[in-house]
Amino acid sequence: LNIGNPAPFGFDAPDEILVDVIRNLPTSQGYCDSKGIYSARKAVVQHYQRKGIRSLDVEDVYVGNGVSELIVMAMQALLN
């Protein structure tokens, strides 16, 4: 499910992302919440609320590092 590094296929990170990574690197030690970064999850909720899906809550949203991670999380939640 995972092809690894997308850069060889022309998928380079935008410059503004690289600048943000460099700026935040000194304070980026450790792990974030396993559901994903709160502000990113909140942005997802706001996006869908603008589209009329009002029942969505931040606690309903999981943001992962690629689809492989999210598939594993979903399978761990559903399978015994």
From TrEMBL:
MF terms (GO), sorted A to Z: L-alanine:2-oxoglutarate aminotransferase activity
Cofactor(s), by name: pyridoxal 5'-phosphate
Lineage: Bacteria, Pseudomonadati, Pseudomonadota, Gammaproteobacteria, Vibrionales
Keyword Ribonucleoprotein applies: no
Organism: Vibrio parahaemolyticus
Protein family per UniProt: Belongs to the class-I pyridoxal-phosphate-dependent aminotransferase family.
Keywords: Aminotransferase, Pyridoxal phosphate, Transferase
Coiled coil: none
Tree of life domain: Bacteria
Assigned EC number: 2.6.1.2
UniProt keyword Transferase present: yes
Protein name per its UniProtKB record: alanine transaminase
